[in-house]
């Protein structure tokens, strides 16, 4: 359950789902969030979610949580709460545009598939940046914040940490209504996107190992 959704957020959606259940109150709902803050994770659990998955999604981490849920339903919420104070490494490894080999691993070693996914992501972000510039010109800070969040989420899932960091920075400045810093962040985001495109174009032509 993505926490940030239009019209109704993940917290309220979960509460409504729980309210409509008559027999099975234990339908697994996992909160999906880019936030590493403990209070956000506690809020997920309080709304009725069974656990919290922090972006970027890591295959092994996800499978471990599912395994815990299946093996010990009664202790699941306590385990989730006990783990929320662990540090999140979502924005580490900012020295390279994308951890290419790690993302291939996360996609099960399918290089052809991940190349296609990354390529489409880059096309989408290029288009989004043009839309962001128009929103900035209109001083539409909510559109800036919302679209920056989308870019951040996608970049995190693809291990493109520098791009995710710049998008998160833009999201933060847009949320605070700071037009000048938002413009600076958008320019930095565009620069990091160009670096990522250049890096990816080189990597995708390397032979499989």
TrEMBL record:
Q: What is its main location?
A: membrane
Q: In the record, what terms sit under GO molecular function?
A: ATP binding
Q: Which InterPro entries match?
A: CheY-like_superfamily (IPR011006), HPT_dom_sf (IPR036641), Sig_transdc_His_kin_Hpt_dom (IPR008207), Sig_transdc_resp-reg_receiver (IPR001789)
Response regulatory domain location is 1-70
Q: Where does the record place the HPt domain? A: 110-203
Alphabetical keyword list: ATP-binding, Cell membrane, Membrane, Nucleotide-binding, Phosphoprotein, Transmembrane, Transmembrane helix, Two-component regulatory system
The cellular component terms of Gene Ontology attached to this UniProt record, alphabetical and capped at eight, are:
plasma membrane
The way this protein sits in the membrane is described as: Multi-pass membrane protein
Which compartments is it annotated to reside in?
Answer: Cell membrane
Q: Which GO terms describe its biological process?
A: phosphorelay signal transduction system
Q: Name one Pfam family in it.
A: Hpt
The record ties this protein, via PANTHER family, to: HYBRID SIGNAL TRANSDUCTION HISTIDINE KINASE J
Which protein are we looking at? Response regulatory domain-containing protein
Q: Which organism is it from?
A: marine sediment metagenome
